[in-house]
From TrEMBL:
<feature type="binding site">
    <location>
        <position position="106"/>
    </location>
    <ligand>
        <name>substrate</name>
    </ligand>
</feature>
<dbReference type="InterPro" id="IPR004429">
    <property type="entry name" value="Isopropylmalate_DH"/>
</dbReference>
<dbReference type="InterPro" id="IPR019818">
    <property type="entry name" value="IsoCit/isopropylmalate_DH_CS"/>
</dbReference>
<dbReference type="GO" id="GO:0000287">
    <property type="term" value="F:magnesium ion binding"/>
</dbReference>
<keyword id="KW-0520">NAD</keyword>
<protein>
    <recommendedName>
        <fullName>3-isopropylmalate dehydrogenase</fullName>
        <ecNumber>1.1.1.85</ecNumber>
    </recommendedName>
</protein>
<feature type="binding site">
    <location>
        <position position="134"/>
    </location>
    <ligand>
        <name>substrate</name>
    </ligand>
</feature>
<comment type="pathway">
    <text>Amino-acid biosynthesis; L-leucine biosynthesis; L-leucine from 3-methyl-2-oxobutanoate: step 3/4.</text>
</comment>
<dbReference type="InterPro" id="IPR024084">
    <property type="entry name" value="IsoPropMal-DH-like_dom"/>
</dbReference>
<dbReference type="GO" id="GO:0003862">
    <property type="term" value="F:3-isopropylmalate dehydrogenase activity"/>
</dbReference>
<feature type="binding site">
    <location>
        <begin position="279"/>
        <end position="291"/>
    </location>
    <ligand>
        <name>NAD(+)</name>
    </ligand>
</feature>
<dbReference type="GO" id="GO:0051287">
    <property type="term" value="F:NAD binding"/>
</dbReference>
<keyword id="KW-0028">Amino-acid biosynthesis</keyword>
<comment type="subunit">
    <text>Homodimer.</text>
</comment>
<feature type="binding site">
    <location>
        <position position="221"/>
    </location>
    <ligand>
        <name>Mg(2+)</name>
    </ligand>
</feature>
<comment type="function">
    <text>Catalyzes the oxidation of 3-carboxy-2-hydroxy-4-methylpentanoate (3-isopropylmalate) to 3-carboxy-4-methyl-2-oxopentanoate. The product decarboxylates to 4-methyl-2 oxopentanoate.</text>
</comment>
<dbReference type="GO" id="GO:0005829">
    <property type="term" value="C:cytosol"/>
</dbReference>
Amino acid sequence: MNKHVVLLPGDGIGKEVMESARLVLEAVAERNGHHFTFEEKLIGGAAIDEMGDPLPRETVEAAEKADAVLLGAVGGPSWDHLPGSGRPEQGLLGIRKQLGLFANLRPVKGFRQLLHASPLKKEVVEGSDLLIVRELTGGLYFGEPQERSEDGEGVVDTLSYSRKEIERIVEQGFESARKRRKQLTSVDKANVLESSRMWREIVEEKRADYPDVKVDHMLVDAAAMKLVTDPTYFDVVVTENMFGDILSDEASVLTGSLGLLPSASLREDGTGLYEPVHGSAPDIAGEDKANPLAMILSAAMMLKHSFHMEKEAEHVEKAVQEVLDAGYHTADLSVVNGTELGCTDLTRKVIEQI
Ligand code: NAI
Ligand code: MG
């Protein structure tokens, strides 16, 4: 199959882990007789430096035409002085919005040899395998108004959703649950927020279409607690934008490292943008220390969700598992016994397995 992939490395370790993903995809293509073409574009701080805009138009145009988009990470201390609207993060928020990427899927699975890398007790995290489905283009991050009052003494953010926006993310939650262990937990704050009460009603309406999926509702504060006290309770969690942002970072401690967590952001036609959950890690950027596995696993999600290459995606996941089984890891997982490698050498190990 021929596929065209736009690469947005971004800033810091984004550039390093993107190179790993590209090499892995080339190995996958070679092994399976596919042909992938890659086109690199600017986003975030790199785009500000070269073009004065965190999201240049040509980046959006190239992404629109691609079969899928891979993104590294954006941001870093060199751009921290910039005002809100001109910051690297606007590149990320902007491309999600402009491509209509409404569903963010974040799988969290404890790799067994990393169980003791989690700060949580082994007995608690063992067997956890969950998927957070986060709404990505609505809610507090986009609602208007979002402003200071003229006298500077007040401020407002707005949490707004349309029925359609809630329906499509709830459907994504049900569809994901159907492909997994068929248990959907809808997380809201229905005791306080009107938007959450509507969310709950819509989940109740939709459950009739998915009789095979078991559904429960949980308040976000209770869910935050249960994620670290009883994580194996969860299969698929569906929730609004900000709750999902916070819960998915919380869930990342189950695996022991941010450097292992991939994500997919999908639009209604099934194309998507794939990126690691971590940021640009300025503290280790340029030192060949970054863990490339989150980015590589994001590329595997791209193979599965956008290209329907299930077998190829499994090859990549299996290669990652085998490399970890053999004891190879980057510095962020130094609690694991075995051999510490840099980003480049760990990537090479994954490619050897493929
Ligand atoms: P971060 O995720 O970049 O780093 C947090 C800690 O985890 C650091 O100690 C870092 O070295 C480590 N880490 C992260 N990814 C790693 C990897 N693949 N391998 C090894 N270690 C890894 O988050 P932080 O420090 O809060 O933010 C740094 C910059 O990244 C900021 O400018 C922030 O705005 C941006 N950021 C961007 C995101 C994105 O592009 N999606 C997401 C989160 C933060
Ligand atoms: Mg976040």
